[in-house]
Amino acid sequence: MSAAGGLTAAPRTVRRVPRAGALLRRLLWWCVLSLTGGVERRGALPPGGCVVVANHASHADTAALLATLDARHAPLIGAAADYWFASPWRRRVCGRLAAGFPVRRTGGGLGDLLERTAELRAGRAVVLFPEGTRGADDGRLGTFHRGALLLAREAGVPVVPVGIAGTGRLLPKHGRLRPALVRVRVGAPLDASAGPEEAREAVGALHARTLAEPLRDSAVRRRVAALVSRRGALLAFVWACAEALSWPLMPELLLGVVCAAVPRSALRVSSAALAGSVAGGLLALHLAAAGADLPAPLTTDRMRSEARVTLERDGARAVHAQPWNGVPFKVYAAEAGRARTDAGAWLAHSTAARGVRTLGVGAAFGLLGFLLHRLRRLYGVYLVLLGGGFAVGLGLIVRGWA
User: What pTM, to 2 d.p., does this model score?
Assistant: First the structure.
């Protein structure tokens, strides 16, 4: 950010560009933004030092630029002195995690900026938000101050406009953090004679272009998302209940399909799958105790023997081994009924055992969906790999227990 007024300060002497620290900050913020919906960049900064001017809708703008701008430029971020440097802990956070330097907004700001001419001449990038404060994320930009342009002319480096989109949704002003894809678009350097209005127009055009660019998606993923929004929980419950009785395909396969397609549904759908699995297991126990013998495809006599032996030895606690040993849940449920296992104890232990696996798998696939949000156009390929991996894994498990 910039401010008008202030005296010209003597440039500092810079011996080296701290690229190692910049690289660590880039990795840190790239990981953070990848976990919150993804981050991507179009374009690149020119060689050598430059002044970067960008729109400012969120505190996350700084993270977006640190995660995407080249570490060889070791970006410095101009930050409001009256906010980010008002207390010791904010000063440390801003300086160490965001490479921030203070810029006064109430007089003297131009002098603060001109102190950075030596860093610019050494090849660093100085990032400024010329609006001076956070605005809106809908393309409306405030008035640009002249400080960034004066700094670039003093140092003899270009001004590079950058448009940022998605940060207003990720971390809105006075709002809470929520997942969103962040996009950064680097434009061509401005003419040396450009004024604040030209810089504002260039940044606004980049921002609008970035907002308007559609995120490529898979038609299959959209259909899955539409199904999940209407009947996802019901489908998960019925699938898991059927698997606990006879159906050969584990509910984790369904969770892999659904949670990766719609990550925000992971908890709801995996909870429904857990409820269906527990209900189906309890029903299977009572049916087996009554003498019913339901079909159990893709199971073996050795699986049944393992479940029978451990149930005789450990009672209902034996089901805690099920999520890890490859023996299907329906085998344990049926053998528990034949062994006259107490239904209350079975309900408690099967809920705990299945809960660890079902909720854990749902959370893992939901996280995968967040991490691969920007690659959702490849969802069809993902389904092929998921189905193939599941088929191979199931075949190896059945063969191992044959």
Answer: 0.62
